[in-house]
Each structure stands twice: as C-alpha cells, then as structure tokens.
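[job 4471] stage=fold_predict status=RUNNING
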Amino acid sequence: MTEKLMEAHKFTDGMTEKEVPMAKVALPKWLIQGLAYGIVLGGTLFTVGTMAVGAFPGLFPAAFGIQMGAIGFSGAVGIAYTKDITE
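[job 4471] inference complete, writing structure tokens
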C-alpha cells in the first residue's frame, strides 16, 4: 500500500508547474494569441450579429451584435488558454 502511495506522489509531483524566473515578457503567449484571434472573431461575430438584427429586427434584440462580438472575443481567449494548459 505504501509503495502505491509513493508512486502516486511521484506521479502528481511531476504534474506541477516548475518555478521559472521572471522572463522579460509582458504577456504570456496564449494571451497574445487569444487577443489576436479574439479581435478577429469578435469583429466577425459583431458584423454577423448586426446583419442578423438588420434582416430580422423582431427576432433578435438590438444589442445582439455586441453580445455576439463579446462571446466571440471571450471564446477565443478561452480557447487559447485551454489549448495552452493542455499542451
């Protein structure tokens, strides 16, 4: 039982992030990628949402374009973060 517990501790100790001295980087790579993709995706979804409100004004709320842009932007940042932590 003790041997299995020691093996589990060795395994989980290897999963922790190692301390790295502060690098001269303003933002992490995943955040820069997420911001870049977020601007593109947010702008695209804002445009599509605005066109949807113009085409069907009674079906969508007036702020639908802004909501879609915000979802696209935050989604791109979240995807970039998720891809970073899984690698």
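[job 4471] summary: The chain has a mean pLDDT of 82.
[job 4471] exit 0
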